[in-house]
């Protein structure tokens, strides 16, 4: 795990996992609590955290894509799309990022 912090791809993988966890927490726990139990506290807390992780993931994906000379139509768009889909970042980490 410590080795992941040493490279840009490693840091992108960490961001992918954190962003995925924050999205799942928001979608499957915080939003149902807000609308089902009328308790918006978790959404208020997780919303900005997820937003920050989302933006960091986007910017780091573009940075790594440029650095690694990824072709946008082959790799970059898939990685970018993953952060919009629940479980998407976990899939992209397994299928693409872990092999780089």
From TrEMBL:
The keyword Phosphoprotein does not apply. Residues 10-96 form the DUF3817 domain. Keywords: Cell membrane, Membrane, Transmembrane, Transmembrane helix. GO terms for cellular component: plasma membrane. Its main location: membrane. The keyword Cell membrane applies. The chain crosses the membrane at residues 12-33, 45-65, 77-97. It is a multi-pass membrane protein. It comes from the Bacteria. This is Integral membrane protein.
């Amino acid at each position: 795990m410590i080795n992941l912090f040493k490279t840009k791809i490693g840091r992108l993988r960490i961001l992918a996992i954190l962003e995925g966890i924050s999205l799942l927490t928001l979608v499957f726990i915080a939003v149902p609590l807000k609308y089902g139990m009328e308790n918006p506290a978790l959404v208020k807390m997780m919303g900005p955290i997820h937003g920050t992780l989302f933006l960091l993931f986007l910017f780091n994906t573009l940075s790594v894509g440029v650095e690694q000379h990824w072709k946008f139509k082959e790799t970059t768009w898939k990685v970018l799309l993953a952060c919009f889909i629940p479980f998407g970042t976990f899939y992209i980490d397994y299928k693409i990022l872990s092999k780089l």
